[in-house]
Amino acid sequence: MGFQFSIERCTEDGWIFISGGTASDYGEQNAFAYLLKKIESETGGTIEEVGEQQYRIKGDGIKLIYQWDGLFGITVIRPDNVEEAEAVAFLKKYF
What we know:
The protein is built from two helices and six strands; from the N terminus they run ββαββββα. It is an alpha+beta fold.
């Protein structure tokens, strides 16, 4: 699809902000859906909704929460037991 994903920043409390490389919210929503479906497909997992615009890929082995909203765009929340470097390395495999 031509998305240019990149990690914008990570916070100490477990938030990872991702850019889909698009200039519009509509493009970012498409990038979010593309990324989620790519990870689902390549891990053999299943996307499950866990909150409003929040999803987990059951079976991905890392239990990240993927979120999209109009203010922050694509964000990922890592569980406390997953190190930042591990989460970032996992995500970058699908960029």
